[in-house]
Amino acid sequence: MGQSNTIRILDGNTFVVCEDTGDIEATPSEPTGLFSLDTRFLSTWVLTVNGERLNSLSFDDLQYFESRFFLVPGMATHYVDAKLSIIRERAVGGSFREQLTILNHDEKPVDLEIRMEAASDFADLFQVKDEILNKKGENYAEVEPDKLRLGYRRGNFRRETVISSSTEARYDSRGFAYTVHLEPNEQWDTAIDVQTHALGPGGRDLRMGVRVHGTERLALQHDLEQWIADAPKVNSEHGRVASTYRRSLIDLAALRFSPLSLGGASLPAAGLPWFMTMFGRDSILTCLQTLPFTPQLSKTTLRILASLQGSRFDDFRDEDPGRILHEMRYGETAAFEEQPHSPYYGSVDATPLFLVLLDEYERWTGDVALVKELEQESRAALRWIDNYADLVGNGYIWYERRNTETGLENQCWKDSWDSISYSDGTLPPFPRATCEVQGYAYDAKVRAARLAREFWGDPEFADRLEREAAELKERFNRDWWVADGEFYALALDPDGRQCDILSSNIGHLLWSGIVEPERAEKLAAHLVGPRLFSGWGVRTLAEGETRYNPIGYHNGTIWPFDNSFIAWGLRRYGFAEEAAIIANGILDAATYFDGRLPEAFGGYPRELTKFPVEYPTACSPQAWSTGAPLLLLRTMLGLEPHEGHLAVEPRLPVGMGRIEVLDIPGRWGRVDAFARGRMDLDNLAD
């Protein structure tokens, strides 16, 4: 069963991926099942009636946390003769609950044997991702009169799935069953409750999860309604903008994740199915995208990342003092240090981006208290940039993993093994320095200088940071400029040799402000030129480069998040038309994905495909893809905090029509922004 045929519901770190009948039949390599805290708690969940599997009539996507399946016994040829209807309605929210309803449409009574096969392999999500299910502990099944307890034990690590029912059932080690007699037109109902437990020493439950009974489901519904009510309203003549915005807002709600250490506050998890956890880079960039709409996510993200900031040297976790984490996991492989994500620090961009977000958050909200609260963590992050990130000693941020077994080789956002290369396609040695991270470091120092001068009472430190940023900008523009191609190299190798390929990373350089103004026009031309721009968006790698592949993960696909920051960068340097072209392409693409942009899609030319081609294993929903339409809205409307007020300078794509964004929150209270695009005169003439 491929991912494209699956149905997904989620609530933060807990999610279910199943077939269109509601059944779960997991294999070691497919992310199907009930997952929570990076562990699969149900790997089999198969419903039969009188020994017969069921077929799907339809499926209702009720909310991100609940769904409904309409089923009948037998094969498709039997649909018109079906005398039974089976409805499975399920919700997830810390645990899992399924309401089962069976209706008899016959004139005769029926006797039914209803059975649910249930099992759990307690696979770690990393084991599923790597297609290696190598369990070292013991599984157990305990049958009790009123419940079935499935468990896994390895030392102090224990996980349990406890299944019970609102009506009397017969439990055995492989599931449970009901014997039901239905009169004509009678219906039978039961509620099945699946509790997931993460047990620590002494049997203490480590989870503070929501339990999905009637009241909790209502609480989730109310929470979603409140989330939407608190966010700005978007109306548009072009319906795709408003509908894509609403889809993004709901997906953001779904991806909110409350780490065990956070006491209920939430930050955005990265993406379903593989990355439903805390990521430094992804969470920060998502917060930057969504700041004008959901600023509360930024405050939580900054606080939790600060609390888990690196404090020592740990080669296994690639940890240094002051470094912001890359990824946090809660499964078995992290618990037993079979992989380092407890947490893992192998990213070089999260630390400068942490400073960028803190400054941007204050500019929007005026939350001076948080800036003062995080002063020491901010200073530690700046020390990391200067003291620990410069592995070569020439003033740039470099990376080379110290954990050579399970650490990440590429620690930039393009973190696949072959994403960094020379123009001939060969891969450079380590350490490596990618261009966009130098831009982030420049931006971080400029912004931290403002914080030091205005809020930390340290003007000397501010002067020093501004001087260092200016020196970095001058040095960067000398060392990274590819003169014959008129763009910036993707990376440098330790000898200073350029990875002289044209990539989307140049757009991040515009966003950071490190680009010399006289060179910006060349970059803008590249970004909307035919080698990088497909018509749907900017490719990660330009057509014609040796490693270019329209469905290469970081070597030619289009990433919506990437495009949103590129558009923001273009606006920063005054290229509003080019930013609008990119926004238009991405928002057009969103309509082909029902408003939910995937992690990445193919870089094929628009005239070749007529629709965007989804990348085969793209996460969906994915946080920074969900945030992309929100940042594009900000970019098109030219929303920028300015001296305590919100400046609005709209530049919409041709034919976009009128857009209004109402109740934009910030230090100014709540304000509205309006914009109207120019008419498409060519289409008007037609």
UniProtKB/TrEMBL annotation:
<protein>
    <submittedName>
        <fullName>Glycogen debranching enzyme</fullName>
    </submittedName>
</protein>
<dbReference type="Pfam" id="PF14742">
    <property type="entry name" value="GDE_N_bis"/>
</dbReference>
<dbReference type="InterPro" id="IPR032856">
    <property type="entry name" value="GDE_N_bis"/>
</dbReference>
<feature type="domain" description="Mannosylglycerate hydrolase MGH1-like glycoside hydrolase">
    <location>
        <begin position="320"/>
        <end position="590"/>
    </location>
</feature>
<dbReference type="GO" id="GO:0005975">
    <property type="term" value="P:carbohydrate metabolic process"/>
</dbReference>
<feature type="domain" description="Putative glycogen debranching enzyme N-terminal">
    <location>
        <begin position="10"/>
        <end position="192"/>
    </location>
</feature>
<dbReference type="InterPro" id="IPR012341">
    <property type="entry name" value="6hp_glycosidase-like_sf"/>
</dbReference>
<dbReference type="InterPro" id="IPR054491">
    <property type="entry name" value="MGH1-like_GH"/>
</dbReference>
<dbReference type="InterPro" id="IPR008928">
    <property type="entry name" value="6-hairpin_glycosidase_sf"/>
</dbReference>
<dbReference type="Pfam" id="PF22422">
    <property type="entry name" value="MGH1-like_GH"/>
</dbReference>
